[in-house]
Write a structure and sequence with these properties.
Layout: E1 26-34, E2 37-44, E3 49-53, E4 59-65, E5 68-72, E6 75-79, E7 85-87, E8 93-97, E9 101-108
Antiparallel strand pairs: 1-2, 2-9, 3-8, 4-7, 4-9, 5-6, 5-8
């Protein structure tokens, strides 16, 4: 039996309030690093874009408010609140804000060691 105590639960009350949409800008902020996961909030003004890129780990994209056009592998979807998109490791993808938008990016990484799971 191990003497290690599991890390305490981390709770974030209102993700949307943790980032604001800035005029003509894309903003990002890491709000949690915990075992197996990193949460990053993005805000996009209308027309802001992340050109095609990849992620080193699988990711989930979830719009908190607004609408994004997400393209990957020849498929383009409009992601709105209530929808979610999964992208596998190293899948090329791009993101375009159709209106002012806040996005939760969940980076899944099982090699991530439990550190302080506190929000940053």
């Amino acid at each position: 039996m191990s003497d290690e105590t599991p890390a305490a639960m981390v709770h974030l009350e209102d993700l949307g309030s943790m980032i604001e949409v800035s005029d003509e800008a894309t903003v990002s902020r890491t709000v949690m690093k915990a075992e197996g996961v990193r949460l990053v909030l993005f805000s996009f003004d209308t027309g802001q874009e992340l050109s095609e890129h990849t992620a080193a780990v699988p990711v989930l994209l979830q719009v908190l408010d607004g609408r994004l056009s997400v393209s990957s592998g020849g498929i383009t979807v409009v992601l709105s609140p209530g929808g979610i998109a999964h992208l596998p490791t190293r899948a090329p993808h791009s993101v375009l804000a159709l209106v002012p938008t806040r996005l939760l990016l969940t980076m899944l990484d099982l090699t991530q060691q439990p550190a302080s799971a506190a929000a940053t």
